[in-house]
Amino acid sequence: MAMMMRKAAALPASGRRSVAVNSLSGKRTVSGKSTVAVPEDVKAYAKNLPGVTAPFEDVFDPAGFLATASVKDVRRWRESEVTHGRVSMLAALGFIVGEQLQDFPLFFNFDGRVSGPAIYHFQQIGQGFWEPLLIAIGVAESYRVAIGWATPTSTGFNALKDDYEPGDLGFDPLGLKPTDPEELKTMQTKELNNGRLAMIAIAAFVAQELVEQTEIFEHLALRFEKEVILELDDIERDLGLPVTPLPDNLKAI
What we know:
The protein has about 250 residues and is mostly helical. The protein has helices at about 1-10, 40-45, 70-100, 120-125, 130-150, 180-210, 215-240, 250, and strands at about 20, 30, 35. Strands 1-2-3 form a three-stranded antiparallel beta sheet, with no helix packed on it. Keywords: Chlorophyll, Chloroplast, Chromophore, Magnesium, Membrane, Metal-binding, Photosynthesis, Photosystem I, Photosystem II, Plastid, Stress response, Thylakoid, Transit peptide, Transmembrane, Transmembrane helix.
């Protein structure tokens, strides 16, 4: 046994079997030769979805999920991405608006108890807010399930309806939905890209406020103030002038 292991280890790199997954094509290779590829129907469906944009003109799948997925799986993932993107866009906007209007009495803050970073606003809001919010969320989710999700069966659990387009809930009060298929796809791509950015942004907002315990714009203002002082210090050094000291509250930023 030990002899066989030594012989295997002595093989040149070109003779060893190696397995890799191409993140763009979705093909699994053994010794450089393609052996397992993404099913053609899955790859064709994924490539024609909105949201496939530069610099990833091909399907961006670094984890190789498509290699074992079906079209139904991809449709469900797209529904999840669209939904999370929309929630994240609302959340990112809510963070900024909430922090700027927390001192405005009509902004459900009659007694001034809501203050500070947005990550703590929910804990500060009392009775009379959560109940309507939970009802609104329940109604919205019930409507989404009724529109897009198939009735669970023993062989078709957690699946979308065949005639449902992921993300299309028929909600267009302003009549902005284009009738031209290409224009619609472009608009859907913009929504997806903004939703993806919002998911990253809201995660960064939460992390920043947890670490520094400051509001978003306050954080930006302090950063800007620090950069201005540091630039001024450089000028003062060049001119041989006394250097402006950095305030204590900016040293840790």
